[in-house]
Specification:
The chain is built from seven helices and 15 strands. By secondary structure, it is of the alpha/beta class. The protein folds into two domains: 116 residues, Rossmann fold (3-Layer(aba) Sandwich); 104 residues, Beta Barrel (OB fold (Dihydrolipoamide Acetyltransferase, E2P)), CATH 2.40.50.1020. The longest helix has 14 residues. The radius of gyration is 20 Å and the shape is elongated.
Length: 238
């Protein structure tokens, strides 16, 4: 089962100049009818945002205080996120493409050139083929393939990430935050406290109350709430 998300794309703009970030956001807004924009002034801020947001593309300046953008590029690509370099210098172009950058835009960015770049970004890798998903909190982070995750389960102020072949991971995060990071085509919320991977559902049974009961790989029976059962039926015609 799969579902192509219709949500507007979310782009992370990383640049140490406030005006440059604002101008690029304005230019993107002229070309896309809807998108979400988040911003970082340096690599340290960007790392935090990538842990807390589901990002469809990164626009990365290179010469910033702290870490250089070229050192951050491979880290972003390891997460499977497309990266577009935005810089006033052309001397890093070969290294950027060697590191698998999607595009290289020279400032000031031309409208027609940005339009071609956005066309590329609107045809991203399928979500299920993204290389890594990085889940973490203030103390630690774990790079995971989405297919490794069986279930995310709320436990008070924490979320337990149940994995197929590893010990569970306990995060100081909300389930809503984790939900935003998980690929929509692979995961479904089943009730207020659980999100599961679709491929790990082995049998789904309707209940008289309007909800579902499902067998989850390695975890036995789980319960769909009436609300989430209705959303599931609308999504998959079940």
């Amino acid at each position: 089962m799969s579902l192509k998300t219709q949500s507007p794309p979310t782009f992370l703009i990383i640049d140490d100049e406030d005006l440059a970030r604002a101008e690029l956001g304005r230019q993107i807004g002229e070309l896309l009818p809807a998108f979400n924009n988040i911003e970082a002034a340096n690599v340290r801020q960007a790392r935090g945002l990538l842990l807390s947001h589901r990002v469809d593309g990164v626009f990365l300046d290179l010469e910033m205080p702290g870490d250089h953008g070229m050192t951050f590029l491979p880290e972003i690509r390891a997460m499977g996120i497309p990266v577009v370099i935005t810089t006033a210098h052309d001397r890093f172009a070969l290294d950027a493409f060697d590191a698998d950058a999607t595009d290289y835009l020279l400032k000031p960015i031309q409208h027609s050139r940005l339009a071609r770049t956005l066309s590329r970004l609107r045809k991203p890798e399928p979500e299920s083929e993204r290389k890594l998903l990085v889940l973490g909190d203030q103390s630690s982070c774990w790079p995971l393939h989405p297919e490794e995750i069986v279930m995310a389960e709320s436990e008070g102020s924490y979320v337990m990430i149940h994995l197929k072949d590893r010990k569970p991971i306990l995060l100081t995060r909300s389930l809503k935050e984790i939900e935003h990071l998980l690929p929509e085509s692979l995961f479904v919320r089943v009730n207020r406290s659980q999100i599961v991977q679709l491929h790990c559902l082995q049998l789904i049974r309707r209940r008289d109350s309007g909800g579902f009961t499902a067998d989850l790989e390695g975890h036995g029976a789980i319960e769909f709430s009436r609300r989430q059962a209705q959303a599931f039926r609308q999504r998959f015609g079940f």
